[in-house]
Amino acid sequence: MGKKILITGGAGFIGSHVVRLFVNKYPDYRIYNLDKLTYAGNLENLKDVEDRPNYTFIKGDINDAAFLDELFATHRFDGVIHLAAESHVDRSIADPLAFINTNIIGTLNLLNAAKDTWQGDGEGKLFYHVSTDEVYGSLGEEGFFVETTPYDPRSPYSASKASSDHLVRAYHHTYGLPVVISNCSNNYGPNQFPEKLIPLVINNIKHNKPLPIYGDGKYTRDWLWVIDHAEAIELIFHKGKNGETYNIGGNNERKNIELVHTLCDIMDDLLGRPAGTSRQLISFVKDRPGHDRRYAIDAAKLKNELGWEPTISPEEGLRLTAQWYLANEQWLNNVTSGAYQKYYELQYDV
Ligand code: NAD
Ligand code: TYD
């Protein structure tokens, strides 16, 4: 009999790729996807696996401790892969409380439910917490984040994720909960909500709208193809050591303006527009408050201990991403119009 795994946030961007990977690769596991279906959660992301016998969707909120206790008591999961979160830095600046509730209290509720269910018998059990490199703060021109880099979160989003990481480690040390944490760099690929830089730029180019670049555009991120992240999570879930942290990165640093130039050129090519057309849409706008200058991951531990490396080149990944958004116009229209949320209100009576 295979494992029973609860994946939280499985209707979101990264979570949907993790759910698909587990459902396809482990037909003998039972995969439960728990998601509140916020604006960022979309079951269309999982159309291809929704009828599989080893997959179950559960609509629910990790802020509801009583609901979680009952869910764990009913299903007695062997593993939790926790991705549910409020994930957008700009929204955290506008409304920090939602981030504190879901990212901190929601994680605490899950930890309690797992602790109470497993009752100190961690054999074959694991609480996997998916986190971000943003907990480490901001780098200058040089250097990389390693697993021992001191935490220095600087946005409400990264502060809430840092807090949840600390709680996960505290439950390991205090109650012996079997845990792993991974801290990953910026992801990109199919199904990302178009509030984040890459899908926003693709969508705006398509509609000939300005491409908003914060500040001087020289802020740097390390971009990772989302399916490579999902594969790293699957590997760490099975082979990672209890209590350990693993950094995951794309080895693919770009200044925002360079990244947007590349996307403009790819989109001109795909849309059959003369070279240079989309670059004219670039518009420098007011900076994000407290904007972290540079993130860069050293993923040597994951490579040396578990043999993981990113599989596709950035040029290939960005082109595949642009092609996906062009081919999935309906998905993009649904998430940008909010029509899919109305559907869920009717479907789930919320
Ligand atoms: P996302 O915003 O696309 O998806 C989040 C999902 O969580 C959505 O389906 C949403 O409905 C669900 N959710 C939100 N609040 C919930 C609640 N209270 N109860 C149940 N479900 C809830 O996020 P993402 O980009 O896929 O990120 C997933 C995880 O990975 C997050 O924990 C994030 O911090 C982490 N992460 C993201 C990136 C990135 O580049 N996107 C990088 C590193 C780490
Ligand atoms: P984002 O995709 O929001 O991810 P994060 O803030 O978690 O790294 O932003 C990536 C980078 O792009 C970040 O430096 C902010 C910048 N950015 C813009 O310049 N313009 C935009 O419209 C957005 C959304 C982001």
Side by side, the strands of the main sheet go 3-2-1-4-5-6-10
Estimate what percentage of residues fall within beta strands: 15-25%
Shape: globular
Radius of gyration: 20 Å
CATH architecture descriptor of the largest domain: 3-Layer(aba) Sandwich
CATH superfamily of the largest domain: NAD(P)-binding Rossmann-like Domain
User: What is the CA-CA span between the terminal residues?
Assistant: 35 Å
The computed structural class is: alpha/beta
- What small ligands are held by the chains? nicotinamide-adenine-dinucleotide, thymidine-5'-diphosphate
How are the SSEs placed, and which strands pair?
Elements: E1 4-8, H1 13-25, E2 30-35, E3 55-59, H2 65-75, E4 79-82, H3 89-94, H4 96-118, E5 126-132, H5 156-175, E6 179-184, E7 186-188, H6 197-206, E8 211-214, E9 220-225, H7 226-239, E10 245-248, E11 253-255, H8 256-271, E12 282-285, H9 300-306, H10 314-327, H11 329-337, H12 339-348
Parallel strand pairs: 1-2, 1-4, 2-3, 4-5, 5-6, 6-10, 7-9, 8-12
Antiparallel strand pairs: 9-11
Helix pairs in contact: 1-7, 2-4, 4-5, 6-8, 6-10, 8-10
Bound molecules: nicotinamide-adenine-dinucleotide (NAD) and thymidine-5'-diphosphate (TYD).
Residues 89, 186, 196-197, 200, 212-214, 219, 221, 256, 288 line the site of thymidine-5'-diphosphate.
Kindly describe this structure:
It contains twelve helices and twelve strands. The chain is α/β, with parallel strands linked by helices. The protein folds into two domains: 211 residues, 3-Layer(aba) Sandwich (Rossmann fold); 91 residues, Alpha-Beta Complex (UDP-galactose 4-epimerase, domain 1). The strands form three sheets. It has a seven-stranded parallel β-sheet, sandwiched between helices. A three-stranded mixed β-sheet has the order 7-9-11. Helix 1 packs across helix 7, helix 2 runs parallel beside helix 4 and helix 8 packs across helix 10. The two termini are 35 Å apart. The site of thymidine-5'-diphosphate has 12 residues, from helix 6 and strand 8. Thymidine-5'-diphosphate binds next to helix 6 and strand 8.
